[in-house]
Specification:
The structure is a homodimer. The first copy, chain A, is of the alpha/beta class. Chain A has helices at 9-27, 35-42, 46-54, 68-78, 94-101, 103-107, 137-143, 155-167, 194-206, and strands at residues 32-33, 60-61, 65-67, 85-90, 110-116, 131-132, 148-151, 172-175, 188-191.
Amino acid sequence: MKKREKISEAVIRRLPRYYHCLKELEKDGITRVSSTVISGMLNITASQVRQDFSNFGEFGQQGYGYDVDFLKTKISSLLGLDSAYNVIVVGGGNIGRALANYRGFLNEGFNVLAVFDNRQFDLELRDGIPLLSMEKLKKFIRENNVDICFIATNAESAKEVAALVIKSGIKAVWNFAPVDLYLGENVAVENINMSESLFMLSYKLKNLTPQD
Amino acid sequence: MKKREKISEAVIRRLPRYYHCLKELEKDGITRVSSTVISGMLNITASQVRQDFSNFGEFGQQGYGYDVDFLKTKISSLLGLDSAYNVIVVGGGNIGRALANYRGFLNEGFNVLAVFDNRQFDLELRDGIPLLSMEKLKKFIRENNVDICFIATNAESAKEVAALVIKSGIKAVWNFAPVDLYLGENVAVENINMSESLFMLSYKLKNLTPQD
C-alpha cells in the first residue's frame, strides 16, 4: 500500500476556499481556469495556487489551465465532501436553529436529523426536523448512525455534551459554544468561537485610530 | 505622550479567551486567581499566562495571584469592550436573524439597531428590532451613528454590501458570508467562514482512520 504523503495544514486550510471558488466558476459555466484567475479570486499568489495544486498530483497543464470539474471533484474528495453525513444539533437557541435550518450545509451532504434541547419552545425548523429532549440523545445517535454533532449550547454545557456524544460513538464535533474544546486525537473538532472573533473586531476598531 | 508598545497578535488573540475566563470566575464569586488556574481553564501553560499578562503592566504579585475584577476591567478596556457599539445586520436569513437575536452580544455592548434585507418575511426579531429594506441603509447608518455592520448575506452580495456601508461611514465589518473580505487598513474586519470550518471538520473526520 502506498503511504499517503503528509500535506501541510496551511495547504489543507486553503482547500475549502479553492473548493468554493471552483463551485462559483462552475455555476458561471466556466470549465477551464488558470492559476491567475483563482489567484485573483482568493487573494493568494498564482504561484502559491500552482504549488498547492501540485501537492495533489497533476491537475493542470502549463498554458492550458485547470479543468474546473476535475479539480472540484478532486478537492471535494480530499475534503470528504463526496460522502454524506448524518448530523445532530445540540442546543436549540438562535445559533442552533440557524445551523439546523441552513440549506447550504444540506446541499454539501450534511444532513441535520434532529435538534436536541431540554427547553420546550416553538422552533421553526425546516422539513419537520424534530426537537427532542436530551435524554433521547444517546439512543438516537446509535440508531441513526450519526456522524457529526454541532454543539450550540452555552460554555458550561459544551464539554459535558461533547463527552456524552463521543461516548455514544460520534467522531466529529463542530463547536459553537464560547469555549474551545480539545477532545483528543480520535475525534475531529472544529471550534467557531464567535465572541472571540467579535472581541477581536472591537479591538481592531479601537486600534484603527489610536487615542493617545 | 508615551508611545504604545506593540503587542504581538498571538497575545491579542488570546485576550478574548482570558476575558471570558475571568467573567466565569467572577460569576462564581472568585476574586483572586493564580496563573495556574487560568492555565487549567484554557489549555495554555501557566508561564504563557504570566508572560501574556506582563505585556499589560503589573497585574499580579508572585504567590498572591491576580485580582479578577482588575484584570477583567483592564482586558475589557484593551479589547474595546468598555465602549458601546451601534450595530446593523445586513442579511435577514438564518444567520442574520440569529446574530440579531443573540442577547450575549447585547450584554457586551453590541446593540443591534436594525436588520436590512430586501426580502419580506416574518422575522422573529427581539425587542422590536425593525427589518428594513436596503435602500434605507445609507441614511440609517448616518443618522444612527452605526459603528459596526454584521454581514450575513451570500458570497455574491458581501463585497458590494461592505463597499456600501464603508462609504456610509462604518469602520468595522463582521463578515459571515462565505467569502473572506479584505477592506484595507482603515476598516476593521473579522471573517467567520463557517463553511470553511465545516469542510475542515469533514477533512479531519475523513483522515481520522485512513482507508488505505
